[in-house]
């Protein structure tokens, strides 16, 4: 992903970590910089990163915190490549208005968000919960072998960082983050969107990618877990703000699996 010029305060050097194993190369870029909230284009200068996001995305309002410099690239010597980055993740946010139970909170959100947009009018004609279905930038009945992932192996490479986050004008949280680890046998990526609309719904969308180095293909599994607040039991209510815990408690309502071949990555 090409990144246009950033603002002065975001020119600190990012943390870059690389790792190679059996023909694969991992490059993780981490930075605390958050996408500026306004344009800072200078005369006769390249487009600023804020305007780049505005031009590329079809949503009316961006999340409060976009960690626009964070990314993970996984490349194979054959030329296959998988990348995870905030811009492509936000491309998958639906541009259509949300429906169903979320409508109850939409009017409150619109009023609250309008107060912090410096004169702009916030409209809820898109998914203001930022529920991206992003699976990475790159069908099978074969599922991920979770037993093999439970085998204790030395972790040779590990990364964890956020892609974006929004507090939904104090009505909950929408956050996408990524975790990656590489072991001697293969690598595993977890991309997770956690959404909580207080007193309305909790939703967890997870994309897992498992690749054994001895294999010429990987397995990608996408799950949607969701429950309205009124249907949460006592244990789930206590865990609703603990992302790992609530994810383990909720049953999937949608599961899809794909085989990812090297030539298709």
TrEMBL record:
<dbReference type="GO" id="GO:0005829">
    <property type="term" value="C:cytosol"/>
</dbReference>
<dbReference type="InterPro" id="IPR007303">
    <property type="entry name" value="TIP41-like"/>
</dbReference>
<dbReference type="InterPro" id="IPR051330">
    <property type="entry name" value="Phosphatase_reg/MetRdx"/>
</dbReference>
<dbReference type="GO" id="GO:0031929">
    <property type="term" value="P:TOR signaling"/>
</dbReference>
<dbReference type="Pfam" id="PF04176">
    <property type="entry name" value="TIP41"/>
</dbReference>
<comment type="similarity">
    <text>Belongs to the TIP41 family.</text>
</comment>
<protein>
    <recommendedName>
        <fullName>TIP41-like protein</fullName>
    </recommendedName>
</protein>
């Amino acid at each position: 992903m090409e990144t246009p010029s950033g603002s002065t305060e975001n020119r600190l050097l990012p943390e870059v970590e690389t790792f190679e194993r059996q023909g694969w190369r991992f490059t993780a870029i981490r930075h605390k910089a958050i996408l500026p909230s306004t344009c800072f284009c200078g005369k006769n200068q390249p487009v600023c990163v804020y305007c780049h996001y505005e031009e590329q995305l079809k949503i009316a309002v961006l999340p409060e915190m976009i960690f626009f410099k964070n990314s993970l690239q996984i490349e194979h010597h054959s030329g296959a490549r998988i990348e995870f980055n905030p811009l492509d993740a936000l491309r998958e946010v639906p541009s259509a208005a949300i429906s169903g139970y979320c409508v109850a909170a939409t009017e409150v959100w619109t009023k609250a968000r309008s107060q912090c947009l410096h004169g702009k009018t916030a409209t809820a004609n898109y998914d203001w919960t930022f529920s991206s279905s992003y699976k990475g930038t790159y069908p099978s009945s074969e599922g991920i072998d979770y037993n093999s992932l439970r085998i204790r192996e030395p972790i040779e490479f590990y990364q964890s960082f956020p892609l974006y986050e929004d507090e939904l004008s104090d009505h909950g949280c929408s956050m996408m983050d990524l975790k990656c680890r590489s072991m001697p046998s293969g690598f595993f990526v977890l991309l997770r969107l956690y959404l909580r609309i207080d007193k309305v719904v909790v939703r967890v969308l997870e994309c897992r990618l498992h690749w054994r180095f001895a294999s010429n293909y990987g397995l990608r599994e996408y799950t949607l877990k969701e429950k309205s607040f009124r249907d949460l039991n006592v244990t789930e209510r206590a865990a609703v703000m603990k992302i790992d815990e609530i994810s383990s408690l909720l049953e999937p309502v949608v599961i899809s699996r794909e085989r990812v071949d090297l030539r298709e990555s």
